[in-house]
């Protein structure tokens, strides 16, 4: 296969196929930068883990923004949840919203777990989604109700821990990555990484209750979309 020279990768020694593959590995799976370096080396590609990190910083968010624009509109039932994470020995909160099918709508890493933080999340969701949900489901944290009354007063709100498993389960991939990377180094790093990670996961998410043949078709379409987003072929 002849490597692709996309204008986005001008002045880069490696072609689009190699760069996009490295970025995909890093954000798709719970792999450290050194692990990605070894996986590339196994394919005869000699590149340092620092180069992979720079590729992730330079191209990751752009890929994520294009993926977000390509995904279908979210359903009108949103699940919101927050989970504590430790960053440099300080407690932070990762706020996440998903729709009823598990598609991650947005995340926000904050140092507080109060009404002001909940308002920031809701406003960010309205800005990125361009619409309000029909129904919002959260746990029993009072901050959600206070924020909803100000930001989304007309939205139905249900607070019940048992109804919010969809959002709680969406934290699991982040927890796996945390263990591999020995925690996030800063709130900014966590926000940057998760903003890309969640969109890549959305693109390659396996739909529930699908047969193998349908999943293979879905996966093939995801790889085609990834190739269009990154400007390179699906493999190399």
UniProtKB/TrEMBL annotation:
> Which one of the record's GO molecular function terms can you name?
DNA binding
Taxonomically, the superkingdom here is: Bacteria
| NCBIfam families referenced in this protein's UniProt entry, alphabetically | transpos_IS6 (NF033587)
Q: Which residues form the DDE domain?
A: 77-205
Q: Which organism is it from?
A: Microvirga aerilata
Keywords of the record, alphabetical order, are:
DNA recombination, DNA-binding, Transposition
Biological process terms from the Gene Ontology for this record are: DNA recombination; transposition
Specify the protein name: IS6 family transposase
Q: Does the keyword DNA-binding apply?
A: yes
The record's InterPro entries line, in alphabetical order, gives: DDE_dom, IS_Transposase, Transpos_IS6
What sections of the protein cross the membrane?
none
Recorded hits in Pfam families, A to Z, give:
DDE_Tnp_IS240 (PF13610)
Taxonomic classification: Bacteria, Pseudomonadati, Pseudomonadota, Alphaproteobacteria, Hyphomicrobiales
């Amino acid at each position: 296969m002849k490597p692709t020279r996309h204008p986005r990768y001008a002045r880069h020694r490696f072609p689009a196929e190699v760069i996009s593959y490295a970025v995909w590995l890093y954000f798709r799976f719970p792999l450290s930068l050194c692990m990605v370096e070894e996986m590339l080396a196994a394919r005869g590609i000699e590149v340092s883990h620092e180069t992979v990190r720079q590729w992730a910083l330079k191209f990751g968010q752009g890929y994520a923004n294009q993926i977000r624009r390509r995904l279908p509109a979210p359903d009108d039932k949103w699940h919101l949840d927050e989970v504590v994470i430790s960053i440099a020995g300080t407690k932070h909160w990762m706020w996440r919203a998903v729709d009823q099918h598990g598609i991650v709508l947005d995340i926000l890493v904050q140092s507080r777990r109060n009404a002001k933080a909940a308002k920031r999340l809701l406003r960010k969701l309205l800005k990125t989604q361009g619409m309000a949900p029909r129904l919002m489901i959260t746990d029993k944290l009072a901050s959600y109700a206070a924020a909803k009354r100000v930001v989304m007063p007309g939205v139905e709100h249900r607070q019940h821990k048992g109804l919010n498993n969809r959002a709680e389960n969406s934290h699991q991939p982040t927890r796996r990555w945390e263990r591999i990377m020995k925690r996030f180094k800063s709130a900014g790093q966590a926000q940057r990484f998760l903003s890309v990670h969640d969109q890549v996961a959305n693109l390659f998410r396996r739909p529930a209750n699908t047969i193998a043949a349908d999943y293979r078709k879905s996966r093939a379409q995801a790889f085609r979309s990834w190739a269009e987003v990154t400007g390179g072929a699906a493999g190399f």
